[in-house]
Design goal:
99 residues; mainly alpha; 77% helix; globular
């Protein structure tokens, strides 16, 4: 499979999410908690998530162009699902809480 293959690209996205969330998990948890008392930190978190969501656009376009999106699944919903599945909260729940 090549890096342009949709399945390979999804596997790479999962690997990248794991690489980011693994070692930085404690740091991001501290920042998120600090955002409650420091609005500027909460704003940074929002900006980081918005950027992550925007960057995933290319993946969904690739899947759509390859006709690999589930029948009836629209572009926005597919993007929302990818964003959610590669998010820090899901990583924390699956890796740290459920092992």
């Amino acid at each position: 499979m090549s890096a342009s293959d949709p399945e390979t690209r999804l596997r790479l996205a999962a690997r990248i999410a794991r690489q980011i969330h693994g070692p930085l998990s404690a740091t991001f948890d501290l920042l998120r908690g600090a955002g409650v008392v420091a609005p500027e930190l909460a704003k940074l978190e929002q900006q980081r998530e918005r950027l992550r969501y925007e960057r995933q656009e290319r993946m969904i376009i690739s899947l759509s162009d390859a006709k690999r999106l589930r029948l009836g699944l629209n572009h926005r919903t597919a993007r929302d699902i990818l964003w959610m599945l590669t998010g820090r909260d899901v990583y924390r729940m699956q890796v740290h809480e459920r092992r």
